[in-house]
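Example (one chain per record):
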Amino acid sequence: MKIKSILVSQPAPGEFSPYAEIAKKEKVKIDFRPFIHVEGADAKELRAQKIDLAQFTGVIFTSKNAIDHYFRLAEEMRYTVPDSMRYICQSEAVANYLQKHIVYRKRKISFGEKNFSDLAPLFKKYPDEKYLLPSSDVLNSDVPATLEKSGVDWTRAIMYRTVCSDLNDVTVKEYDMLVFFSPQGIKSLQENFKDFKQDNVKIGVFGNTTKQAAEDAGLRVDVMAPSKETPSMTMAIEKFIKSMNK
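Predicted structure:
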């Protein structure tokens, strides 16, 4: 079966994205629609978790979402984040995003390489802070494991949630291929399309946890990334289309 149409469960990228190249080169239609979105918690929910922002001397950020919701709630609760606050960020990109909310220079900002476990030396270097971890309702198991192993004083605060989007205007059966990037995306497919039968529809997934979620949902995974040959989802899709559309 030839691949003529693909639905990617993410927001549309810019016009010069690799997806645009694939669509042009392989003559396929590629549509984008986020299957999930983020909703922020409010001050009342944070208080219910017994979180007092003023108690903490350090904040650990794993994502840009975490940064936005931390400063949004600080403002909502009329808490002025002190200049003395220590920031530990999962990556340089996350650290740089802090500039949206604070004057970056002269602040105590550190960051890791890529994975959360890369932050272990930083916790060893700054063991005396009382850390707050703003997070979503879904937390990668590496995060608490690394923090517990480091022995630092830390508290998790659920500041936002990943929820399923309403997709009642989408007809998934119109597409030859669906592409997913998270277990929550698979969950949204199940919630929005309870009668969905895969049949000839191809499923592409990014990451092992997404693959596991798809298989747990009884889906057949046809395209998987990252791999040695195809480190990106777009490379994996292009390779698959070429093999199917010979």
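Caption: The first helix runs from residue 18 to 26.
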